[in-house]
What we know:
Blueprint lengths: L8 E3 L8 H5 L6 E6 L2 E6 L9 H5 L5 E3 L3 H9 L5 E4 L1 H7 L3 H11 L3 E4 L1 H18 L15 H6 L1
Parallel strand pairs: 5-6
Antiparallel strand pairs: 1-4, 2-3
Amino acid sequence: MGGYNSGVIFTNDNCIGCNRCISNCSLMGANVSIIKNGKAHMEIDSRKCNDCGRCINICVHHARDFRDDTDAFFADLKKGQKISLILDPTFYAIYGKKAPCIVGCLRKLGVEKIYDGAYGRELCAYLTVKYLKEAKNLPVDQRAFISNACPAMIAVV
């Protein structure tokens, strides 16, 4: 059970095993049903979870939580660790005019490279739609099954 509950998102003791997390998760196998103290309990397989946080928002029992590693991030920067960041486009939407100042501050603190996360999403959307168009006339048994872990990507397609 070393891979369970060891990632950023984890299940706390409020879990009653209602399975809402499983039915709303974009990744099959990321939630694992176990028996804990004689009761059903859902744990997260940290090797499969993409840390999207959907289960935190879905859980009505407040059984999902996340580890805040902000202090470790800044401590590692202070030690001179080489750290690069991928910034989601929502970073710029949330912080607006402050975004360039925040990025500059992170660079001064030692962040090595900062990448724009939008490129990967757009490439993924383009290639997925391209494949769907190219494969639409193939027999069903010759088409690849597409499963994407990103709810935003699924919404785009």
